[in-house]
Write a structure and sequence with these properties.
single chain; alpha+beta; Cytidine Deaminase, domain 2; five-stranded mixed β-sheet; 4 helices; globular
Length: 146
């Protein structure tokens, strides 16, 4: 099956279109669990690791705004808790008219998992946009920077 929304050349070679679709469905589903009473900006994220494992997260706001946790970082925590760090795909689903890319903090955390991973930013209506992590965060601060 070909991925119906983008040129198949944009799909990470390690991830089949079926896995992409499963990750998008998981991100859409987990987005419904987001806790965002202050911004009403619901976000769902799904990560696919190098073995095809799926890890999800949603944003969790807090009245002390600095303690808010983004969906992408929640998914990284889930993957880490499962013993997985080599992430090949991150799907981010927002309810905005155009897809929203991960924030700067999430870019930094995702880059630690794999600076070459693919990022699919989309909406429930499937306004898909693919990026590579190193496009979103060029010259990232990483282990080699220490």
């Amino acid at each position: 099956m070909q991925f119906p929304y983008v040129d198949s050349e944009m799909i990470p070679s390690a991830v089949s279109s079926e896995v992409v679709e499963r990750a998008v469905a998981a991100a859409i589903a987990v987005r419904a669990n987001a806790y965002a009473p202050y911004s009403n900006f619901l976000v769902g994220a799904a990560l696919v690791d190098s073995d095809g494992g799926l890890h999800v997260g949603c944003n969790v706001e807090n009245a002390s705004y600095g303690l808010t946790n983004c969906a992408e970082r929640a998914a990284v925590a889930a993957a880490t808790a499962a013993g997985r760090r080599n992430i090949v795909l991150c799907v981010v689903v927002t309810g905005t008219p155009s897809p929203a890319a991960p924030c700067g903090a999430c870019r930094q955390v995702l880059s630690e998992c794999n600076p070459a991973m693919q990022i699919l930013c989309t909406t429930p209506e499937r306004a898909d946009v693919f990026y590579r992590m190193d496009e979103l965060l060029p010259h990232a601060f990483g282990p080699d920077s220490l």
